[in-house]
Write a structure and sequence with these properties.
InterPro entries: Homing_endonucl (IPR027434), LAGLIDADG_dom (IPR004860)
Pfam families: LAGLIDADG_2 (PF03161)
CATH architecture of the largest domain: Roll
GO molecular function, one term: endonuclease activity
Low-confidence stretches: 1-7, 222-226
Strand order of the largest sheet: 1-2-4-3
Helix content: 25-40%
Radius of gyration: 17 Å
Number of domains: 2
CATH topology of the largest domain: Endonuclease I-creI
Keywords: Chloroplast, Endonuclease, Hydrolase, Nuclease, Plastid
Number of helices: 8
Mean pLDDT: 85
Protein name: Putative LAGLIDADG homing endonuclease
Structural class: alpha+beta
Order of helices and strands: HHEEHEEHEEHEEHEEHH
Strand content: 15-25%
Number of strands: 10
């Protein structure tokens, strides 16, 4: 069995230049969020609805990326006929180790997971990128923020993320229901209440403020640190 913690220590398969701790943090954050690694290829697919955020990710990960750059894509919903747009790019095929770390390929079907081994590397940048991917401002309460857990198991991975957030940042989000999918499956979220907002904001704002559209969208209420 491969040592997944060792793979994270030197996370690009061919030990290249450019594999910095900052880029590792960004990859961890977006792999927890919306990005995917295709089995057998080792290429990370990054797709976002916000062009500026997709471009920021591309610029940060540029040494790893293909020459095609960020491309606008469209998709037509089969049932509603509504066309949606996103911005996508791919890395080169250097990240088979991330497939090993972030996926359970023995499950049927294979599924994404929250790996315990990321905890030592789950820093403020990784948290900020995870929130830019899957977080949103909870409208019902000023200063609250939620982070969707779609695709993750509530009973195992919800508590694992809670433990990592406490161990790393002394944050205590609750796991709450977040509606149902089109298929009727229950969906869940991590909820950061207003009492934790100031601390969360101090941790993630240095990264999120680099993408103004995401700072407005994710952290619409900005409080001054004491």
């Amino acid at each position: 069995m491969m040592n997944r913690e060792y793979l994270l220590e030197d996370f690009r398969d061919d030990h290249p230049q450019g594999a910095t701790p900052l880029r590792r943090s960004i990859l961890i954050g977006t792999m927890l969020g919306d990005s995917h690694v295709k089995k057998g290829r080792g290429s990370v697919k990054v797709e976002q609805k916000e062009r500026d955020y997709a471009q920021w990710l591309f610029d940060q990960l540029n040494p790893f990326c293909t020459h095609g750059g960020v491309k606008r894509t469209s998709r037509l919903h089969r049932q509603t006929g509504v066309e949606s747009f996103a911005y996508r790019f791919y890395t080169r095929s250097h990240f088979r180790s991330l497939r090993t770390i972030f996926y359970d390929d023995h499950a049927t079907p294979p599924r994404k997971r929250v790996p315990r081994e990321i905890e030592p590397y789950f820093d403020e940048v990784a948290l900020a990128v995870f929130i830019m991917d899957d977080g949103y401002k909870a409208s019902q309460t000023d200063g609250a923020l939620a982070l969707t857990l779609d695709g993750y198991d509530r009973l195992s991975e919800g508590p694992l993320l809670q433990a990592m957030l406490w161990n790393r940042f002394q944050l205590e989000p609750s796991v709450q229901m977040n509606g149902r999918s089109r298929s009727g499956r229950s969906q869940w979220k991590l909820y950061f209440g207003a009492d934790q907002y100031d601390r969360l904001h101090r941790l993630i704002s240095p990264t999120i403020s680099q993408v103004p559209v995401m700072a407005t969208k994710k952290l619409s209420i900005v409080r001054q640190a004491p």
